[in-house]
Amino acid sequence: MSSKYNLPRGTYDILPDVSYKWEYIIGVFKNTAKLFNYKEIVTPIFEEADLFERSSGETSDIVQKEMYKFTDKKGRVFALRPEGTAPVVRSFVENNLAASAGIQKLFYTGPMFRYDRPQKGRYRQFYQYGVEAIGSNHPYVDAEVIALFYTFIQKLGLTEFEVQINSVGNAKVAERYDQALIEYFTPHKDELCFDCQTRLTKKPRRLLDCKVKRCREIGQAAPVMLDYLDEECTAHFEQVKTYLNQFKVPYSVNPKIVRGLDYYTHTAFEFLNHKLGAQNAIGAGGRYNGLVEQIGGKSLPGIGFAGGFERLLLSMEEENLFSGEELIPQVYIVAIGEKAQAQVASIISLLRQENISVEYDPEKTSLKAQMKAADKIKSPYALILGDDELERGVVTLKYLQERKQIDLAISDLSSYIKS
Ligand code: HAM
C-alpha cells in the first residue's frame, strides 16, 4: 500500500514492534534518574528562538544551520527546541527554583529538532533523555552526573561503550587557548573550509569540531586545552577523576573534546559506541557555569548531559539485548456460539477489572480460528466460553503451553487466574 503522504525527511514512526523496546529504555532511564534522586521536569517543545541563539552560541552548527525557526501570528520568533539544557535553565530561572533548598536535580525526556543531514543515528526529530544539576560547582556533582549516565547504560546491559572526559577550562583559560589556536591555524587559513575560515575569527575552538577531512588533518597537531588550564581548573578536573574512581566509572581523558555548544566550562564528556559508525556519541554533556546568569538568573553553576534514545536502541539491537517480546495478553478469549459471543463483554470486563490483560477478536468465530490466534500471540491461557457452559455458569481455562485444561465457575475465574 502506498500512502498519499510521507514522513518528513529525517523523522520516523515508532511502530508497535519497536515501541515496547522504546518504552523499556525510557523506563530504565527514569528509574535510574530517580535512584540518584533526580525529579522530572517537562518544558514546551518550542521556546523563544533567542534563548537558543544566545546560549548555544551564534557560531554553533545548531544556531547557524539547524534551527527550526518560525514566526507566530503576532510576529514572535520561536524555535522548536534543538536541545534541552537552555529550556530547563529558562524554567529554573523563571520559576525561581533556586529558592528551594539545595542543588536542583532535574531529568527530562522528549523530542528535539535539528535540521541536520539525516543518516544512521542522526535525525531531524530525535528523542533525548537528559539530566541537569543546578546550584553546585563541586567536582563531586560532575562525577555523580557521569556516574548516573554510566549506571543507566550499565542497567541496559550495554558493554560496547567508552566514557571520555576533558576539561574545557573557564572563560579566562578559553581566551588564552583561543589565541593559541588562532596562531596555530592562521598559517593554514587558505586550506580551511569556508565555515572554518569564519570560525577562526569568531570562535577558533569550533575548528576542532569540523567534520571536513582537511580541517581535521590540520587540527591533528593543534594545541590542546588541557595544556592551558590554570591551577583552579586543573584541581577541579583532578577531583572529578578521583570521584569517578570512587564511583567505579572507567574513563579515558580525551583532550580533543570541545563540544558543539558554547555554554560549556570545566568538565566536558562523551559516551561513545564506536560500532555505531560516524554518529557514535550515545550521549554527551558537561558543566555550564555561566549559563544560568546568561539566561537571566543568579550566578549559579550547573552540569548535565543528554543522549539520543535512537542511538541506544541501535546499540542495544547490535548487542542483541532485547530478549523481551511485545506485550502478550494473559488471556485469549475464545467464544463459541451466538449466546457466548453476545455475553462476551461482561466476562472480559470482569477480568480487566482485576488487571488481567485480555484479547478477544470478534471477527473470528470458529474454535479453530480463535485457538490459532491465541497460539500466534503466545498468550499463556485461552478462556473458552461455550453457550451451554455459560448457561451453567462455567467456563474452560486452557493452559496453552502445558496443553491441559480445567473447568471453572465464573465467580472463581479472576481469583484463580490471578493466583
Ligand atoms: P549534544 O551533544 O548536542 O548535547 O547532544 C547530546 C546527544 O544527543 C548526542 O550525543 C546524541 O546522542 C544525541 N543527538 C544529538 N543530535 C542528534 C540527532 N540529530 N539525531 C539523533 N541523536 C542526536 C546537548 O544536547 C546538550 N544539551 C547536552 C547537555 C545537557 N549538556 C549539559 N546538559
Number of strands: 16
Q: Name the average pLDDT.
A: 94
Number of alpha- plus pi-helical segments = 15
Would you identify the CATH architecture of the largest domain?
2-Layer Sandwich
Q: Domains counted in the coordinates: how many?
A: 2
Judging from the principal axes of the Cα atoms, what is the shape?
A: elongated
What is the alpha-carbon Rg in Å?
A: 28 Å
| Relative strand content | 15-25%
Helix content: 25-40%
The major beta sheet can be summarized as: 8 strands, mixed
- Give the termini distance in whole angstroms: 45 Å
Reading side by side through the largest sheet, how are the strands ordered? 1-5-6-11-10-9-7-8
User: Which stretches are poorly predicted, pLDDT < 50 over at least 5 residues?
Assistant: none
Q: Which fold name is given in CATH as the topology of the largest domain?
A: BirA Bifunctional Protein, domain 2
- In CATH, the homologous superfamily of the largest domain goes by the name Bira Bifunctional Protein, Domain 2
- Identify the bound ligands: histidyl-adenosine monophosphate
CATH class of the largest domain: Alpha Beta
Structural class: alpha+beta
Question: Could you please describe the fold and organization of this structure?
Answer:
- The chain is α+β, with helices and mostly antiparallel strands and 419 residues long.
- It contains 15 helices and 16 strands.
- The chain has helices at 16-35, 49-56, 61-66, 85-94, 139-156, 171-185, 194-202, 213-219, 231-246, 291-294, 309-318, 338-353, 367-376, 387-391, 413-418, and strands at residues 39-40, 46-48, 68-71, 77-80, 104-113, 125-134, 162-167, 252-253, 265-272, 281-287, 302-308, 331-336, 358-359, 381-386, 394-399, 404-409.
- The strands form 3 sheets. The protein has an 8-stranded mixed sheet, sandwiched between helices. A 5-stranded mixed sheet has the order 13-12-14-15-16, with helices on both faces.
- The longest helix has 20 residues, at 16-35.
- The radius of gyration is 28 Å and the shape is elongated.
- The mean pLDDT is 94.
- Bound molecules: histidyl-adenosine monophosphate (HAM).
